[in-house]
């Protein structure tokens, strides 16, 4: 009898607690796993690693949290039902399930979103680690300073989570507007808290020149298209089929807007910074007004062994060294570079302070 009770207790513990604990541990180690996967893909810089990991983390939240919560039931049951029905019925199936999950997402926003912002203020994990390091490892003031280092803002996890709430707000804005106040409160708290943390707490480990924005813009477009498609599926179940052709125009216009922005502005984020290019052009016009740029670029990327003469090699080397070592910048009318009041821990004095300490 005792053996039966003990085995029943162990079985209940395994079935009740271990899956939740395993899922929680997996979510804790997931950002590290995604960063390792991004390294295997060949990304080297920290900014590119975080951008790649953020895309994977957002996809995980989109499938696991959003779609996985809306489509209740086991994955294999839902897969079986999707295979049996036509493809145009899938938005309708999801559209029916969206209003039913509003209460769940309200609870999710309060538990994960609001509590996460409160945890961001408390910073319990860095506090506990500091006391442990201070008790066991700190020997000098340098050790104490390293123990107090709060690190940097994790863009690979924080930004995808915020965009998940943005997706929820877009989807439920026209379906269940009662969810919007919870989203607005979350974003209001997030703005206040993260603004304080970025200015006063976290260190800036790198400056990528806003290279993160194209990915953010793409995920916003995905959220817009998702909300529009699901709204069409919901309206088709409410006897409003005549409104569906009108809504079809919205995804088309959204995709056209994304392609326009991609062609018009993306090069400014992924190529040479426009501000530095403008400084180089201004410097060139000021110091070399008669420079034959076409002739200079004609042999600029030719291997030295294929160049005409040694004189040309010497001239090219002189010009190249001049451009690489030139530090004098001609002042321009427009000052577009904005920095934090203090230089970051990593970049040092490479980021000058703003005038007046602003």
From TrEMBL:
GO terms for molecular function: calcium-activated cation channel activity. Residues 338-358 have a biased composition (Polar residues). Residues 7-235 form the CSC1/OSCA1-like 7TM region domain. It comes from the Eukaryota. This is CSC1/OSCA1-like 7TM region domain-containing protein. InterPro entries: Csc1-like, CSC1/OSCA1-like_7TM. Residues 311-358 are annotated as: Disordered. It comes from Trema orientale. The chain crosses the membrane at residues 12-37, 57-76, 96-117, 162-195, 216-237, 243-261. One of its GO terms (cellular component) is plasma membrane. Keywords: Membrane, Transmembrane, Transmembrane helix. Pfam families: RSN1_7TM (PF02714).
């Amino acid at each position: 009898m005792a053996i039966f009770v003990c085995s029943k207790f162990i079985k209940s513990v395994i079935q009740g607690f271990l899956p939740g604990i395993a899922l929680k541990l997996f979510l804790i180690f997931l950002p590290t796993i995604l960063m390792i996967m991004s390294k295997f893909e060949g990304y080297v810089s920290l900014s590119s690693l975080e951008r790649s990991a953020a895309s994977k983390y957002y996809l995980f939240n989109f499938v696991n949290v959003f779609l996985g919560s809306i489509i209740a039931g086991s994955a294999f049951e839902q897969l079986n039902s999707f295979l049996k029905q036509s493809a145009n019925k899938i938005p309708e199936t999801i559209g029916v399930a969206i209003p039913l999950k509003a209460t769940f997402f309200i609870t999710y926003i309060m538990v994960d979103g609001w509590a996460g912002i409160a945890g961001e203020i408390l910073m319990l994990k860095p506090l506990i680690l500091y006391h442990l390091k201070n008790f066991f490892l700190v020997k000098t003031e340098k050790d104490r300073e390293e123990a107090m280092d709060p690190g940097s803002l994790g863009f690979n996890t924080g930004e995808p989570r915020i965009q998940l709430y943005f997706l929820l707000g877009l989807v439920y804005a026209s379906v269940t507007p009662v969810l919007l106040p919870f989203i607005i409160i979350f974003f209001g708290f997030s703005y206040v808290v993260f603004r304080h943390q970025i200015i006063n707490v976290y260190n800036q480990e790198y400056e990528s020149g806003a290279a993160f924005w194209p990915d953010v813009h793409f995920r916003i477009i995905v959220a817009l298209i998702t909300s529009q498609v699901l709204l069409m599926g919901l309206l088709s179940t409410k006897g409003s089929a005549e409104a569906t052709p009108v809504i079809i125009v919205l995804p088309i216009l959204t995709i056209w807007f994304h392609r326009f922005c991609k062609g018009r502005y993306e090069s400014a984020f992924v190529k040479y910074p426009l501000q530095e290019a403008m400084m180089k052009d201004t410097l060139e016009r000021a110091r070399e007004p008669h420079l034959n740029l076409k002739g200079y670029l004609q042999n600029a990327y030719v291997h030295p062994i294929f160049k005409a003469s040694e004189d040309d090699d010497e001239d090219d080397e002189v010009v190249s060294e001049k451009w690489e070592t030139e530090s004098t910048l001609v002042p321009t009318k427009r000052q577009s570079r904005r920095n934090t009041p203090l230089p970051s821990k990593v970049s040092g004095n490479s980021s000058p302070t703003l005038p007046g300490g602003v």
